[in-house]
Amino acid sequence: MKTKLITLLSLITAVAFAHEGVELGPNKGRILEFSKNESMHGEVTVKGDKFHIALLDKDMKPVAMTEQALTATTGDRDKPVKLVVEKDAKGFVVPVVKAGEWLILQYKDTAKAKAITARLEYNTTTCEECKKAEWLCECKPAAEKK
After folding, report:
1. Which residues, other chains included, contact 53 with Cβ-Cβ below 8 Å and sequence gap of 6+?
2. Taking the model in full, what pTM does it have?
3. How far is CA 95 from the centre of its chain?
4. pLDDT one digit per residue (tens) for the chain, 146 residues
5. Helix and strand tally (H, E) in the chain?
6. Which residues, in sequence order, are CB contacts of 83 under 8 Å at separation 6+?
7. Sequence-ordered strand ranges (E) for 12-144
C-alpha cells in the first residue's frame, strides 16, 4: 500500500511539473537549490557517465571549494543506494543514475551545517518542443507563453 501511494504521488508530481522548463545555469546545466535563500546553487551537467555538480553563488558565479560536502543517493525509498561522491576544483562528481531514476543530493557548506536536500529526476526522454532531454528542458511554462 505504501509503495502504491508513493508511486501515485510521484506520478502526480511528474504530471504537475512535467514540461514546465527548468532553470539552467551558465554551462546550460540544471540548477538545483543548495540553500534556503538562493545564495548557493548546484549546476548539474553530464560528461560521459558522470554528473558534474558545480557550485555557484547567488549571481551564478563559481564558488571556491573548501569545506563543502555532498552525499548522493538513488534507488527505491525502501532500498536507497548511496553513490560515491568525488570532490574536484569546481564542485562534485557523481556517477550518472539510470534514466528515469531520482538523484537525491544532500549539500552542506561545512561539516557541522544542516544539510539541504535537492532532488533531480533524470528524465532523458526528448522534449518535442525544444528537442532537449526533459531534465534540461528550456520550454517556458504554459502560463508564461500567453
Report:
1. 32, 42, 43, 44, 70, 91, 92, 93, 94, 105
2. 0.81
3. 13
4. 555 444 444 444 444 444 457 899 999 999 999 999 999 999 999 999 999 999 999 999 999 999 999 999 998 888 999 999 999 988 999 999 999 999 999 999 998 999 999 999 999 999 999 899 999 998 876 545 44
5. 2, 9
6. 72, 73, 74, 94, 95, 97
7. 30-33, 40-47, 50-57, 69-75, 80-83, 86-87, 91-95, 102-108, 116-121
58 sits in the region (left: phi over 0; alpha: psi -120 to 50; else beta) called: alpha
Length of the chain: 146
Element (H, E) at 16: helix 2-17
Residues paired with residue 43 on neighbouring β-strands, in sequence order: 31, 54
* 9 touches 121 (CB < 8 A): no
